[in-house]
């Protein structure tokens, strides 16, 4: 089941915003600063609001005693603050489980905002296409090539990966293992434009059933 922040707020706007306001009353700027990602500095009022609204989001889920908040190091501090607020209000305290960052960012570390450099389960087709178009994909660079990393995961699901090309560009080719694709990309036989186009098409195909499911909720 997908829970949208906007829907949660509209279901009980008074309760939600009271939780956010109360979180603000219990916090000071040092508390908020400590809840930010390790690499972030507290510079904007929007960062304060984002932290307090995160507490409100977790409060909305805290009725489930078995709730687990999974996150990377990037959001661990924010989850920790929200759980502490749950405890101070005698609500069930969700478990925080930190998981390793995936290696599937579409840009080098430190570049872009998280929502733009990661493929989200809720991304629409146009959003996936935009992200794939901007993805780092330097010709013949197989050391860091996010589309190739994604293709490796997609091949694990489907067993093969189709590159569709015009006959003048080599024609269609179905890869059965990533090693051959990496070799073609390293040699220049596989162009970044063709790789990106196939990657975007495959991602949209994978996400389409989920999109249809979300429409019915």
Automatic annotation (TrEMBL):
* Domain of life (superkingdom): Eukaryota
Give one Pfam hit by family name.
Answer: tRNA-synt_1b
List where this protein forms a coiled coil. Answer: none
The catalytic activity, as recorded, is: tRNA(Tyr) + L-tyrosine + ATP = L-tyrosyl-tRNA(Tyr) + AMP + diphosphate + H(+)
InterPro entries, A to Z: aa-tRNA-synth_Ic, Rossmann-like_a/b/a_fold, Tyr-tRNA_synthase
Tell me the GO molecular function terms.
ATP binding; tyrosine-tRNA ligase activity
Q: Which GO terms describe its cellular component?
A: cytoplasm
Is this entry keyworded Membrane? no
- What Enzyme Commission number(s) does the record list for this chain? 6.1.1.1
Q: Which UniProt keywords apply?
A: Aminoacyl-tRNA synthetase, ATP-binding, Ligase, Nucleotide-binding, Protein biosynthesis
Q: Carries keyword ATP-binding?
A: yes
Q: Name one GO biological process term.
A: tyrosyl-tRNA aminoacylation
Q: What class of enzyme is it?
A: ligase
* Protein family according to the UniProt entry: Belongs to the class-I aminoacyl-tRNA synthetase family.
Entry-linked PANTHER family: TYROSINE--TRNA LIGASE, CYTOPLASMIC, TYROSINE-TRNA LIGASE
- Protein name, please? tyrosine--tRNA ligase
Upper lineage is:
Eukaryota, Sar, Alveolata, Ciliophora, Intramacronucleata
């Amino acid at each position: 089941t997908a829970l949208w922040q906007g829907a949660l707020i509209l279901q009980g706007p008074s309760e939600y915003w009271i939780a956010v306001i109360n979180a603000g009353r219990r916090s000071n700027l040092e508390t908020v600063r400590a809840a930010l990602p390790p690499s972030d500095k507290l510079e904007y009022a929007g960062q304060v609001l984002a932290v307090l609204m995160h507490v409100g989001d977790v409060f909305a889920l805290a009725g489930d005693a078995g709730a687990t908040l999974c996150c990377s190091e990037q959001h661990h501090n924010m989850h920790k603050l929200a759980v502490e607020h749950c405890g101070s209000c005698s609500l069930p305290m969700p478990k925080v489980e930190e998981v390793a960052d995936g290696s599937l960012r579409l840009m080098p570390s430190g570049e872009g905002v998280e929502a733009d450099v990661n493929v989200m389960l809720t991304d629409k087709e146009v959003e996936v296409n935009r992200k794939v178009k901007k993805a780092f994909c330097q010709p013949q660079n197989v050391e860091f090539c996010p589309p190739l990393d994604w293709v490796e995961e997609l091949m694990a699901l489907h067993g093969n990966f189709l590159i569709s090309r015009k006959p003048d560009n080599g024609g269609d080719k179905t890869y059965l293992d990533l090693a051959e694709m990496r070799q073609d990309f390293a040699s220049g036989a596989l162009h970044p434009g063709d790789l990106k186009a196939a990657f975007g098409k495959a991602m949209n195909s994978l996400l389409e059933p989920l999109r249809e499911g979300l429409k019915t909720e």
